[in-house]
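Figure S7 source data.
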Amino acid sequence: MEYDFDKVYDRRNTNSLKWDFAAESHHAEDELPLWVADMDFRSPKPVVRAVKEAAEQGFFGYTKEKYEDKKIVCGWLERRHGYAYDPGDLVFAPGVVFALTQAVRALTVPGDAVMISEPVYYPFASLVRDNDRTLVRNVLQHDDKGHYFIDFDCFEKQIKDNDVKVYILCSPHNPVGRVWKRDELEKIGDICLSHGVTVFSDEIHADFVYEDNKHIPFASISPEFEMGSLTFTSPSKTFNIAGLQIAEVIAHDEKIRKAVKRAIYSTGYAEIPVTGLAAMKAAYTECDGWVDALVSYIYDNIIFMEKYLSEKCPVLHMTHPEGTYLPWVDCSGLGLDRNALEDLIRNKAKLWLDAGFIFGESGSFFQRFNAACPAATWKEALNRLAAAVNHI
Ligand SMILES: Cc1ncc(COP(=O)(O)O)c(C=O)c1O
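Tokens for the predicted pyridoxal-5'-phosphate complex:
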């Protein structure tokens, strides 16, 4: 077999945040971890080889990217997502959250309003609050099938009422699994631009889209959107290399790009890691086939879960994900309060998931799973869940 996603690895004792820090996080050692967005698949062989080769040289001195390296990032984005960024627009950073934080610092001042659409990846709220900006919580709506959408009247009113300066878009959206359609992105952009709001488009999950959904880079929609936005991306989710600390910010507006670059460098960050650069180059040039196979494998896990829940746990309702590897499950049908739900998941099902409320109040009574694991691990998790749910 060309790629073996079925193989179960023991990741304990590797300093893995996901597997090795249960006690420190007040979780029991026997809870199966399906929380943080970290996959239980080895990175593709070319990435492992590139890191080994970089290590074999035995030189770990200061490292800097060349223009050709930026072209490699742009090559991936163009090939996979159909949008040709200018390599000169690109700035490297150690992580997307780091880059978002510095961009917020660069383009707003304390007290300024930054809007997010909840439920959403929880560091968005904390990075706004921790930098003394005012957090504006737009709440996503959903229909009875769990399909989420933006109430644009409310979205625009909140922007106007709060004099919002920046909107952080999660595209595709973690945790509700939306791959925003062109007309939705256009609406977001039209509203934001007409009110002078800069869009920060976090596109880290862009490679994980299913069925006929297509990720549309926000900046690709029009020259105005490109000028009025920043794109944040990284090979870290797609190739499972978060530990190699490499991410990219793309800003077409020169003034904005310089301000964000200055903010990034003002932290003392200087150069990209030699291993991260090597991994990134191999990932973006040699691994298209691996990514196609990976996405198809994860999709099978997602479909398996949907069927499994509808047959064995119909009280739980899963949002059908258009993208991301993080299924979002409505557990409100169990009629449990927040503590009882946590007790069920952690102590009865013995699962370590991300509780929905951490993504925003509207996520209460949901749980977020991580489907990026071997099928055997996935089945074990679902069996544990069904046994606990059907016991009550
Ligand atoms: C939407 C989103 N942005 C950013 C990140 C993290 O990126 P980084 O580790 O590069 O800060 C994640 C990780 O799950 C994510 O889901």
